[in-house]
Specification:
With about 300 residues, the chain is α+β, with helices and mostly antiparallel strands. It has helices at about 40-50, 75-80, 95-105, 110-120, 135-150, 165-185, 195-200, 220, 265-270, and strands at about 1-10, 15-25, 30-35, 55-60, 65-70, 75, 80-85, 155-160, 185-190, 205-210, 210-215, 230-240, 245-255, 255-260, 275-280, 285-290. A six-stranded mixed β-sheet has the order 7-8-9-3-10-11, with helices on both faces. A five-stranded antiparallel β-sheet has the order 2-1-4-5-6, covered by helices on one side. A five-stranded antiparallel β-sheet has the order 14-13-12-15-16. Strand 15 and strand 16 (about 285-290) form a beta hairpin.
């Protein structure tokens, strides 16, 4: 279990404000920090990693105390053994893919672990290439592999996929989830993408102006819990859940999550990732699957 109580004065676009958050992350869990730019999400990550120092608070990981403002304890980033993955890759341009991974390997670790990572990340064929010859998606896979090469206790992901296009981002989300489950590393993700948070995280903290305003599962936090009303929206299916006699669909519409019911016949035609159009007449929404490239405006 990781627990962090972080208090730090910040300067935002509208003036000074206090970052005052309390976070808990269970062992092996993925938790997301969600909120507008400048709300304090990245500062919270940096304080946990030891790259920034809170003015007050306490940060613990298991039995280890990483920071205690009252007792004047502040462990270095090296002692905390945290893996921090940035949006901009931060790869060494003069090193090959293998060299970047080997640089992150601790001296006491088995070098064969690099071979495992290259295979798991499907980077074996790229291992002798340098970063400037790779695509954005390939660079991000190398950056993730390098972050995991140090076998961190805690993985911090600061909007790592936001610079990629939708198709590559979705693919790497699947890859990230697979690897996190394989290694079982406790993870905190910062993201402004509702679909990404829903896909990756079991719990989410919404941070606004330095304060946690909502927390819970992505469905609890983002869904308004309303399926009635008149609407006509295109969206993406995030989840399909069987109920007693109906199915519950979780659909990403823009940057909002909505939950609607579907019949067995409607659900049988759908799978997660499908583009759909939600059409509601009175109180009974209809869900219509969209073919690839089809515009909802044609209906």
């Amino acid at each position: 279990m990781m627990h962090a109580l972080i208090q730090k004065q910040l300067q935002g676009a509208e003036g000074a404000f206090m970052l005052d958050v309390s976070l808990e992350v269970a062992s092996g869990e993925i938790v997301a920090l969600f909120g507008a730019s400048g709300a304090g999400k990245t500062t919270a990550l940096r304080c946990i990693a030891g790259l920034d120092v809170p003015e007050n608070g306490r940060i613990t990981f298991g039995d280890e105390c990483w920071f205690d403002g009252t007792k004047h304890v502040c462990q270095s980033p090296q002692v905390r053994h945290v893996g921090y993955m940035f949006q901009d890759y931060a790869l060494f341009p003069n090193m090959t893919v293998r060299g970047n991974l080997e640089f992150a390997l601790r001296k006491s670790d088995d070098p064969r672990y690099i071979e495992e990572l290259l295979q798991l990340m499907q980077l074996a064929e790229l291992q002798h290439r340098k970063p400037d010859t790779l695509s954005g998606g390939q660079k991000q896979r190398v950056a993730l592999a390098r972050t995991l090469a140090s076998q961190p206790k805690l993985l911090l992901l600061d909007e790592p996929l936001s610079a990629l296009d939708a198709a590559i981002r979705s693919q790497l989300q699947d890859e990230l989830l697979r690897l996190q489950r394989h290694f079982g590393v406790t993870t905190i993700l910062v993201s402004h993408d509702v679909g990404e948070v829903y896909k990756l995280a079991s719990r989410v903290y919404v941070i606004e102006s330095g304060r946690i305003t909502r927390q819970g599962s992505p469905t609890e936090v983002f869904s308004q819990g309303k399926t009635n009303g008149k609407f006509r929206f295109a969206g993406e299916v995030l989840a399909i859940e069987a109920m007693d006699v109906m199915f519950a669909l979780t659909v990403l519409v823009g940057n909002q999550i909505v939950r609607v019911t579907a019949t067995h016949e409607e659900a049988a035609q759908l799978k997660t990732g499908d583009d759909v159009m939600l059409v509601s007449k009175a109180f009974n929404p209809m869900v219509m699957r969209l073919e690839a490239g089809e515009s909802p405006l044609k209906q």
